[in-house]
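Email to the structure team, subject: Dihydroorotate dehydrogenase (quinone) model.

Hi all, the expression group asked for a predicted structure before they design truncation constructs. Nothing fancy, just the tokens so they can compare against earlier work. One-line instruction: predict Dihydroorotate dehydrogenase (quinone), return tokens.
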Amino acid sequence: MYKLVKPLFFLMSPEVAHHNVTGGLKAVNKIWGGSRLVKAAFTLENKRLERNVFGLTFKNPVGLAAGFDKNAEYVDELADLGFGFIEIGTVTPRPQPGNDKPRMFRLTADKALINRMGFNNQGVDVAAMRLKYLKKRENIIIGGNIGKNKMTPNEDAVNDYIICFDALFDVVDYFVVNVSSPNTPGLRDLQEKEPLKHILNTLQQRNLKNGISRPILLKIAPDLTDSQLDDIIEIVAATGIAGIIATNTTISRDSLHSDEALVNESGGLSGKPLTKRSTEVIRYLAEKSNKAFPIIGVGGIHSATDAQEKLAAGASLVQLYTGFIYEGPALVKKICKALLD
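Reply from the structure team: attached below.
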């Protein structure tokens, strides 16, 4: 079915297509029996798919990466598509419109996207309120991806992360600290050892409420050098955070086949060109740390084989975004079925 409608969606701009797809999911969910039909088509339930990672039980290891549902508007609908977990955000303390449009581009010859969205979102309080009233809350693990507002200087960034952390604490199962997006000026400077340790240690000091703590993960860029990855391993040990998400989008433009004008658009590149590098980062972190912490693998997963390679490299879980757009919602079930087989 998706193969039939995909050409129509790809005639639209990426943001318009996204709006139509998510709006369509909402509409189907409101029809009597619609949610049940979608779930029957795309969900594979089996106890053998369960994964216990950083103290949480995931019904399967395939999640939806941050960026697709920035404002927690579609969690109920996306849960019907078979994901084991859904990561909302990136959210910031205050609403912000993001960068000027157009800000997302399809590189179809490369099965890739370039985006420079710029953390467009309605603010953390809106997302927190939506999550509070989810219908399927008990059936899906939810992550909260948090960032800083564009106008917040880096020296004050920790305060933005604190605001988001406190606002989402009661309504998410784990947190992701995003300091690796290339689309907020200066954000990646926070990946340096000292500012990063300061942010993570500060959040860890607040990470207890009514006897409950939340796993905190760090999302890193694929463009880090081996010495920087060594620093990341040291930071995980020093701060006691739960794990790493590897990786975010890349600023590299190596070996692309799409039109030069598209290739030269600024922003983060995702999709198939990232498959190899993200797997390399996963393998390096897993081997160098002796698997001291869990890794969620993301970047260029367009098939069950891609997912299995990341799991074999050392990932405990995987996430989809661009592959979900190019291959369609059946990809989740295909991966789960391959894992069972």
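Residues 2-340 form a domain with the TIM Barrel fold (CATH 3.20.20.70). The chain has a mean pLDDT of 96. Ping us if the truncation boundaries need rechecking.
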